[in-house]
Structures are given as structure tokens and as C-alpha cells.
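Proteins fold. Shown next:

***
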Amino acid sequence: MDGRALLAETEGFEGDPETVTLDDEHVLDLLDPAVREWWVDQFGAYAAENEGFFTPPQKEAIPLIHEGENSLICSPTGSGKTLASFTAILNELFAREREADDGLENSVYCLYVSPLKSLANDIHRNLTEPLEGIRDIATDRGEPVGEVRHAIRHGDTDSNERQKMLEETPHILNTTPETLAILLDSPKFREKLRTIEYVVVDEIHSLAASKRGTHLSVSLERLEALTHESPTRIGCSATIEPLDQVAEFLVGQDDGEPREYEIVDTRFAREFDLQLRCPTDDLIDTPGAVVTERFYDQLHELIQDHTNTLVFTNTRSGAERVLKRLREEYEGYDEENSGCHHGSMSKDVREGIEAKLKAGDLDVVTSSTSLELGIDMPHVDLVVQVGSPKSVASLLQRVGRAGHRVGQTVTGRVFALDRDELVECAVMLKKAAEGFVDSVAIPEQPQDVAAQHVYGMAIAEVRPEAEVLDILRSAWPYREYTDDDWAQLVRYLTADYEGLEDRNVYAKIWRDENDPPDGEYHYDDFPVGETLVGKRGRLARVIYMTNIGTIPDSFTCEVFTRADNEWVGQLDENYLDTLEPGDVFVLGGRNFEFKYRRGSKVYVDPTSAAPTVPSWYSERLPLSYDLGKELASFQGDLLAKHERGGAAAVRHWLRQFPLDDNSVRAIARMFDEQIRYTGPESLSTDDRLAIEEEVDRQEYKRQYYVHSTYGRRFNDGFSRLLAYRCAQETNANVGLSVADNGFVLSMPLNRKVDVVGLVESLDATAVRDLLRQSLAETELLQRYFRINATRSLMILKRYKGYEKSAKQQQVSSEMLLGFAEDLEDFAVIEETYREILEDKLNVEGIEEVVRAIEADQLEVTHTRVDSPTPRAFGLATLMASDVVLAEDESAALQEFHQRVLDEIGEDSMTGTGAIAGGEE
């Protein structure tokens, strides 16, 4: 049956098939008749907007996969990219099964790799239907049809199921990155992988930016070296950039050049209906309770107007709080029709929510990040984002969960509840509408991941060193891996450091020339004199299998007072990344000054000083660097509009954005007040970095507000760099408070430093070394050394049946850190600094900004104020976002605001839309 015959039988189709444009008939023609009939019956109702049976990514991807082309398929959630991959692969496997005398071998032909067990489970369930459906159709047609088996294997698969897979091997194997690495070293099952012809990497955007993705990239190169033929690699991704780089990450290198690939770019194949909302046009003087009430009223109304609503918040506690408030304040919400989903919940609870979402049984579900990826949820027709998702890619990923079918409009509403996020979200939605996507940063040359894989390759078989190095360099993150990098790694893996084995860190591999026949390391398969690599230790395979992976263990720290050892609460260890001695934080409604940590215990002193680090700091996602630069550019454009026509021109311009009227008025008013108060030079733009200095005589402090809009990773690094330089200049403790749109340097009033001069004197070539020096003896260094020492198998999580907890790992790492830092070019230390500088503190972004300052492309301005400017309000009250200090924050904001109004005159409000009645 051809495409037009199928069109005539499409349910609900009326008219003459011969007169209808059918743009994808060639795709249908590629499919086996039974597969084609199944497709149209299940998924392929004619879609006029696509001029055919297939969605745009399916139309492009299926022919490419049919031809065996490596492909990156980039399209919105719900556009059918994963289905396209499997349809093309199933088509080939059924044809192979039918044509081969003995059918398919008892071996794996397609490997599907997912970052989430739940997603692998979902795909596994979704494969059962097409496999059975195609087989039934072929049987009805009288065609011979064999069996195409599929199975799932990950950490939860029991030993009986694993054994069955050896006896009756799945032709399609669904797994996770960690399990793939284990399978590559499983003596029996690795032989089942030699026949693999297709590799599908799903949700590749969520893997690329982490070491988990780097680990997978090396596994794929090890698989490449193992298989009979080079497998076709298919990557499925939601919105991501840059596509070429991600595609090269997927396909790897061959003889120093990227393998050939095709990109299916249909990222904007769906219609989006996005809008930013604000409960009021005045987020300062409107009482907080009123803002909250209006927000929940609007949220409730949106939920009632839609079938299934998914609400994303930026914290797990926020997701729980929103659901609790809805159930308490409004009728109709109960455990049967509403729920919450996040990573701290039990597996059973999460799976129960997922099942109800798939079935459309829930009116509303609140979540933090756990539902960004994974299961198909076809009934969700609205996504609400509370607060900024911090990147355009994350925004599109989240809202893409709505209208989970091509042809349906993606409806998303973003609520901003503070002024800084209001501006941030306005820029984000504007850039999303323009097709902008943030760039992904892929970790490069991490030595801890390399250590795991070199160990794994040595365990699998003795092989030439050159082969091991070639496999490693074939993975995109290691394409520039130097001989010196390799020598550093080998020296660690062979324990070629005096005193290392005395601390129970033993050699993991041997490296030696192949000896003559009577030598210790002689192997007939290799010529005498060739350098070989092999494993050390009888337990090497067990150690490797039970300790590999890149996701770090974490723990909570117990907090005690120094004076009387009073227990005061717990802190997540991630929070300690930001703490330096002298920092003040809130715990249990009381303020404490951080002094030091020993293992899993934190010691503090009670204090009345104002907090410096928000309690939410470690939980929220950071603003992307790319979007931060767009924020600076937006402010420059806004200034140009204001210069030509004042606040009215700004409002007119903002109404071209997807903003409600409250958002337009609030943004216009804030910038109008900023300009009237301190002039345009107090705003950072794409060619200006603004610094304001406030003298607080009451608190006896001097505060420098650095308006660097480049995101929290940048600001975390840049602030550490400047604080380090300031401390050198003033010989005083320098306090830090860091946010996405800037940071605050705080010091005693009798200490004064030329911060602008320090910034202008920075040398881009020295930034990396200075920032590294600033990390000495920090909690950040201690924590990341533990993580990298564990990833590098310097510290074993599991050994001979004993499991070492994250707390115990931390104690072990603290005992090793001083020794390790004194070793020359020690791979684990070097990787720890690399990861902190590049992946956490965005040293490359800092170098870029410093180079722009050196080249006079970025002006640094200085403004003295008696009270913070409107754009500094959020920085000045950073800690007050803690719930316990919400009233203090409101009072402080109102006081700051009144000072600004007193300075510029109350009449400045006229013309900004804030007069009585809210009319212009």
C-alpha cells in the first residue's frame, strides 16, 4: 500500500488523495510494508501542517538513518525524534530478520543509551507496542516474520535477568552510560556488543555538559574499537547550541578528524505561546502577602482553564510549597488529582506520579527539575515556570513538555516575583522568540574520567599503549590530549610517586615494553619492544565494576557551635562550596558565622551580623553566561530607547516583547528610577561594566556592587579573584555575596581600595593562576578534591564488601590533600583545579571579559552612592530572600526605594505608569 492509498484510509480524511500535497511519500517508501502500515495506523495520521504523515524531524531523520548516516536530531520535546530513530532501526532489523537464513544473531544490534533509568523504562515500554504491532501485521499479510527482542539493563536489573540476557540476548538493549561502561568490561557480554550497528544517545543535551557525557563519549570509542563495523550514531536532543560541536561530541574523531555526520535542525518546528507575567506592577511597595495571593489566584485560574498543568519551580522546597498552598487555599485539589515530583522523593512515589501524568489523571503536578526530561506526557497542555529557569535552553525544554504533539501549540507562562528575575525573564523570552539558544560547555580532558577508562581498557585486555591513547583521543573531549597529559595520567595510574602506596593508593596498571619470551611481560600477539599496558591486581575487575561512574556521592554536614559544641542543624555539603571563614548564614532562624569544617562537621559561632550567603544558593540553577551577556546588551538597548523618549519609549518598546502589562510597567519604572538617580553610566551594558560604591556608616562597612550580569558561575569566579586581590591590597577580610547579575565586595569602612583600578589592572594571561591561588585551603577545593579522588579511584567507595560513605570519603580525602598537593603534576590535583576553574567558575568567561577591558572594548565605570541604586537592591538584600527574613527584606527594599524617590523627587513616578489607577 503506497502513501496515497494510506492517505485515503486515514481516519477522518476527506477529499481526493491525488490532489493533496504529500511531501514525505519518499519516507513512507523506505519502510517495509508491514512497518509502513503500522506507522500510519498508530502515529501517521495525515498532518496538513507537515504536508504528510511525518513530523519535520522524522521526515529528515528516517532517510538518514536508513542510509547509515551519523545524525544529530535536534527538535523540541514531543516532536517524535526518538520514535524516528527507532522506526528506521526497526525497519532495518525486521528486514534483516526476514532475509537472513538463520534470522538475527543472538547478539545486540542496537544500543539505546539514556541519562535516566525512568526514560529507559519508558522507551522499553513504548518499544513493546511497535514490535508486537508490526509482527501482527506481517502475520496477517502472510509474510514470514521472526522475533526482534528488546530488553533493559541498568543498575536495578537483577542478576537473574542479566544471566538470561546472555542466553537470549536482546537485539535492542536499553541502558545507561554507567552500565555501558560495565558491559564493555564484562568478559562474556562484551562479545555480544561486537554486532552493534546502531547507537542511539537520547537527551544528549543533558549529558554533554557534564563528566557523565565525557565518560559516555569514551565508552562509545571503546565500543567503536570493539564492533565489527563502525556503528551508526544517532543523537536525540532538545534545543541546544552549538549544533556542530554537539554533533562532533556524538560522533567522535577518526585519525584526528571528526567522523562524518548530518544535523537535523528542527528546533523551532513547533508553535510557542509564551508570556511573562508579574502579579503587580510594583514589586516593592505592594505587600508581599498581596503579591503572593495574586500569584496563586492567577495560577489557580490557569490550572482551571487547562486539562493538565505542569508547574516548575527552581527548588524542591518551592515545588512542595506551591502544591501545599493550592491544596490549602483552593477547592478541588487533592491527592487524586494533584501531585509533586522531585529527586528527593522515593522511586515508588515518583513512578506513581509519572504513571498518572501519562494517563492524564492529574490536573496539576509541581516539580523542580526532575520532569524536564524523560517520560511522554501527552495530556499536559500548559507549563507554568515560577521564577527564572536561568537559560533559554532550559526554558524551552520545560515548556516543551506542554502540547506534546506536533501540531499542538506549546503554551507556557513564566511568573517573575522579584525585579531582578523580571528583567532576566523578559530578556529570556525575547531571545527565545528570536531563536537564540545558550551554548553548552563540554568538559575537556578530565583526567579522572580518563583514569577510569584507561584502567577499564587495561582490565579488558593487554593492549598497546598507542591503541589505548588512540581510543582516548578519538573521544571529542580528548581530541587535544597531549603526550604530557598522558604522561601525567600514567604516572598516577602506575603509582610512580614516593609515599603514594604508603597511603594505600596503589598502582592500577603496569606499562612496559613487551619483553622477549622469557620476560615478565611477554605477549606473543605483539612485537618485542612495543609498549604495552595491562592491569595490576587480582581484584582489579571487581574494583572497577563497583567504583566507576561520575555522579558524586553527597552528604549533609552536622553544624555545631565552637564554644559549647551545641548542635544547631544540618547543611547540604553543596552549600559549603560558597562558604569562607567569616561568612554568615541563617540556620533554624539564627545567624551563624562559619569558622571551619572537619570531615562532615561544621563549626560556627553565633552572631548578630547580617547574613552574606543565601540559604538557596546551592539549590538554584545558575544563569547561563550567554544569556548574561544578552542581559547586558538588553540594558544597552533600553538605555538608547530611554535617551530618545524616556520611560514612555521604553514601555512602547517592551510591549513588543511577550510580557504582560504589569511586567512592562515594573521594568520601565525600575530603569527610569535608576537613570534619574545615578545616570546611565551606573548600568552595565555590552560595552560597560558598572561598579557602585556605597559607604554604610551605620554598619561601618564599605560595599562595592559589581554589576556583572554574566551569571553566577562567572560571578563566583570573578568575585573570588577580586576579593583575593582586595585582601592583598588592604590586609583585611573581604566579604562576598554573589548572585547571577552581580556580586558585592564588603570590607571595613576604614579600608578603601581602588576596585576599578584593580579590575583595569588585571592581566588576562594571569587570571587562571591568580584564581587558582585564591582557591588554596578553601572548602571548595577540599570538596572537589574528594570528588575527583573518588572518580579517579584514588579513594575507593567499595572494596571487599565494605562501602565507604561520602562522609568517610571526605575524611580520607582531607588526609590525602596536603600530601597530594606537594606532588609534582599530580593528575588528581590538576583535574581538581581544572574542574573548579573551567566547569564551576567559568575562568574562560572571566578571561574573555578581562581581555575586553584590556582592549578598551569594555569600559569600567564607578559611581558613589549613599544608598544602593534600584539595580543593586537585589544584591543589597541578597540574604533576605530567606523565608525567615522576608519581612526584613521587604522593609529594606522599601527603605532603599524611598531614598531613591526622595533623591529624584516623587514626581518622577509620573510618566512611568505608576499614577493612581495604573493608567498612563
The CA atoms of residues 200 and 426 lie 36 Å apart.
